[in-house]
Amino acid sequence: MFSEQSGPQSQPVTMEARTFWLLVVAVLALGSSSSTGQYVGLSANQCAVPAKDRVDCGYPEVTPEQCNNRGCCFDSSIHGVPWCFKPLQEAECTF
Predict the structure, then answer these.
(1) Position 43 confidence tier, pLDDT thresholds 50, 70, 90
(2) Strand partners, 56
(3) Which of 26, 38, 83, 95 could form a disulfide with 64 if both were Cys (CB 3.0 to 4.6 A apart)?
């Protein structure tokens, strides 16, 4: 007589499946970001530069990733202005 075991032995499969789906969701979330408004390592406030005040930080056909690697903001939603531009400096605290 054999009985099916559905206790702790089946748990690793469930944890593996859960981990797999969490990774899938994370990859999809990262891959679905658009090319507008990407501020990797920068706050949204630092990249809230008015279009007329943007200082070019890139070069023609720079990708969002290349721009961010330079420490710059990338926003391709406004035509006729730099898409890769220098961020605003965070206000420094003075004590």
Answers:
(1) confident
(2) 85
(3) 38
